[in-house]
Amino acid sequence: MLALRVFVNVPQHVARLMARGLDAALAQHIAHLFTRDPLVIFQGAVAEVDDERSTEHFENVQSTNWQTVRWKPPPPREGPNAPHIGWRVEFRSMEVQLTDFENAAFTVFVVLVTRVILAFDLNLYLPLSKVDENMRRAHARGAVTGERFFVRKHMAPPPQPGGGGGGGGGG
C-alpha cells in the first residue's frame, strides 16, 4: 500500500464547515477524520459513486475512526416519499459477552443510557485526542484498575442566555 502524507489544515477546514452551518464540535470531528492514514478505495467506487444518492465516500473516511462511539449520518432517502432513517450513534465499547443474558443486559443498559442522555440533554463531548488516549490506555492488561481515563466532569448543558435550561446543542 502506498502511504501518502498529506497536510490537513484542521483549523481551516473547521472554519469552512462551520461557515456552512455545522456545530463547532461536529466540524472539529469531521476535520480530524481527514488527518488519519490513507483510506482504502475500491476499484469502481470513486467516480462511479453518486454523492447525491450515496454516503459511500463519507463512510470510507468515517470508517478510519472506529473508537468507542461512532456517529452515523442518515443515508440518503430512496425517494421523496421514502421514510427518513435519521441520525444514529453506535456504541462500540464492548466485545460480545460470555452469555446471551449478559449480551441482552448490556443492550438494555445502552438503551437506558441513551434515554438518559436525551432526557437530560447531557453534553458528553470529549476531544478526539482524549478518546484516542483512552483507547491506547484501555489496551493494557488490567487497565480497568490500573489506568486513569479521561471523562467529562460537567455534563449538564451550559445555561442559555436569558435563562432557560438545556440547549440541545451540546458544546
Roughly how much helix do the residues carry, as a percent range?
Answer: 25-40%
Largest sheet: 2 strands, antiparallel
**Rg, nearest Å:** 19 Å
Distance between the termini: 38 Å
SS-based class:
mainly alpha
Biggest sheet strand order reads 1-2
Low-confidence stretches: 1-6, 166-171
Order of helices and strands: HHHEEHHH
Enumerate how many helices there are, as a single number.
6
Strand content: under 5%
- Look at the structure and give the mean pLDDT: 79
Globally, the shape reads globular
Number of strands: 2
Structure summarized in a few sentences:
By secondary structure, the protein is mostly helical. The protein is built from six helices and two strands, in the order H-H-H-E-E-H-H-H.
